[in-house]
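Researcher: Please predict.
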Amino acid sequence: MIDGFLALYIFMLAAFTGYEIIARVPVILHTPLMSGSNFVHGIVVVGAMVALGHAQTPPEQAIGFVGVLLGAGNAAGGYVVTERMLEMFKASKKKEGG
């Protein structure tokens, strides 16, 4: 089992790596990466549901519930943002006779 300092180290390493990768992404690739990250958020929700299913004490259940809630909101919001971004690239329809 992972002790607290190792878990914190892994979390900090993942956060730093994620920041460095995302900061170097060209603007043109942002929309396709958003689509891929929405997939990852779905996996996070499934992981949070599994963690919630294994929770035994009320604090564990509360943390698991918040994890599921935030993960689901993040995934749903990501799809909304991606849809809005894709609408910007569609050809605009001009009004006829106007």
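Model: The chain has a mean pLDDT of 81.
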